[in-house]
Amino acid sequence: MSTRVLFDLYGVFLTRGVEDSLLHITDAVNAEVAQQFRKTYLELRPELEAGHISDERWWQQLALRSGVDNGEISEIARALESTFELNAEGLEMASKVMDAGFVTGLFANISPGLAQLARERFAWIEDFAAVIFSCDIGVCKPDAAAFDVAVESLGATAKDTVYFSPTQEFVDAARQMGIDGFVYQSPQQVFEVLDAL
């Protein structure tokens, strides 16, 4: 079986995506600076997820540029960690995909600190044939280079790779690379796509 299957971490195996997580952690911020915090967070996040800056330095910059009190930062960091809610249905689906003989990969834009937390908290990550974390490869989705690394990590070509993500922007970028991309909706959708190959 030559087909490789690539799944996003957020929105497939974790119930919250980045946007949902951001809404959750914004609750920990003083309402007067919440809008600026959100804007700054999104501006600075790619640099962190690409591993170009340490978590500690990133949080310092975020506090300085967003006007968030330094005392709130630890609360925000704890709130962010609490967004790691496992989607058991997605995990069960991936297990069945693996059992069916598909080589599978896990793909995520993620900071070094959260990547470490994910590896510590979720032993099942090691079940995937390839784990592609943006902080490890120095580039984030939707950059084409990130998809190149993912496909290569799976030992495949773009045309032999099927990708599932809840994020339309990422799916569009994958399709531009020649990857068969789908906006993730449900485990049943994954089974239907793979059965049709």
Automatic annotation (TrEMBL):
Keywords: Hydrolase. Transmembrane segments: none annotated. GO terms for molecular function: hydrolase activity. The keyword Amino-acid biosynthesis does not apply. The keyword Hydrolase applies. It holds the Pfam family Hydrolase. This is Hydrolase. The lineage of its organism: Bacteria, Bacillati, Actinomycetota, Actinomycetes, Mycobacteriales.
